[in-house]
Amino acid sequence: MGKRYYCDYCDRSFQDNMHNRKNHLNGVQHHRSKKAWFDQFRDSAALLFDEQMKKPCRKFLQRGVCDFGANCKFSHMSEEEQYHLRRMLEEERQHKEDSEDRLVFGRNVDEWLRKREKKQAALGSKGDPTTKEDTEEAETEIQIPQQLLSIPDLPPSLLPPPPGGWRVKVVSDWG
């Protein structure tokens, strides 16, 4: 018997020689099977665009079955299916935008924390700001990103100081 060639797209095998393989690879059946295989992996947006450009198939609408099947040049997608595909695309787009926003948010907070650490290290090396001018200067330099303030239930260490500074209660045991 000789070597056999198996085509994954068509799910068939035949005797492997140059003539048979060339005829198979150039055949209509192979091209249809290959197109059907790659259509499985098409982008949803491209699929929706192609279906919207086609006219609806009358036979498919009347009988629910078309003699041409996947090779029909008309659309077999109902209005409801197109609507669901549009919603799915919109949700994917929204999810993508949200994930991009989260990345930007993370970068802004990380950048702010790095700047804060540098300032604290600089203050630590020259000592605590003891003069009133140094304290006011430090207060005006506090700029917390708005994204950080929009998070509910922040721990107290991340909350900005209230205007006028923190209130300190002096408790005396002498009394």
From TrEMBL:
<dbReference type="InterPro" id="IPR013085">
    <property type="entry name" value="U1-CZ_Znf_C2H2"/>
</dbReference>
<protein>
    <recommendedName>
        <fullName>Zinc finger matrin-type protein 5</fullName>
    </recommendedName>
</protein>
<dbReference type="Pfam" id="PF06220">
    <property type="entry name" value="zf-U1"/>
</dbReference>
<keyword id="KW-0862">Zinc</keyword>
<dbReference type="InterPro" id="IPR036855">
    <property type="entry name" value="Znf_CCCH_sf"/>
</dbReference>
<feature type="domain" description="C3H1-type">
    <location>
        <begin position="51"/>
        <end position="79"/>
    </location>
</feature>
<dbReference type="InterPro" id="IPR000571">
    <property type="entry name" value="Znf_CCCH"/>
</dbReference>
<keyword id="KW-0747">Spliceosome</keyword>
<dbReference type="GO" id="GO:0006397">
    <property type="term" value="P:mRNA processing"/>
</dbReference>
<keyword id="KW-0507">mRNA processing</keyword>
<keyword id="KW-0479">Metal-binding</keyword>
<feature type="region of interest" description="Disordered">
    <location>
        <begin position="118"/>
        <end position="165"/>
    </location>
</feature>
<keyword id="KW-0539">Nucleus</keyword>
<dbReference type="InterPro" id="IPR036236">
    <property type="entry name" value="Znf_C2H2_sf"/>
</dbReference>
<feature type="compositionally biased region" description="Pro residues">
    <location>
        <begin position="153"/>
        <end position="164"/>
    </location>
</feature>
<dbReference type="GO" id="GO:0008380">
    <property type="term" value="P:RNA splicing"/>
</dbReference>
<feature type="compositionally biased region" description="Low complexity">
    <location>
        <begin position="141"/>
        <end position="152"/>
    </location>
</feature>
<feature type="zinc finger region" description="C3H1-type">
    <location>
        <begin position="51"/>
        <end position="79"/>
    </location>
</feature>
<dbReference type="GO" id="GO:0008270">
    <property type="term" value="F:zinc ion binding"/>
</dbReference>
<keyword id="KW-0508">mRNA splicing</keyword>
<dbReference type="Pfam" id="PF00642">
    <property type="entry name" value="zf-CCCH"/>
</dbReference>
<dbReference type="GO" id="GO:0005689">
    <property type="term" value="C:U12-type spliceosomal complex"/>
</dbReference>
<keyword id="KW-0863">Zinc-finger</keyword>
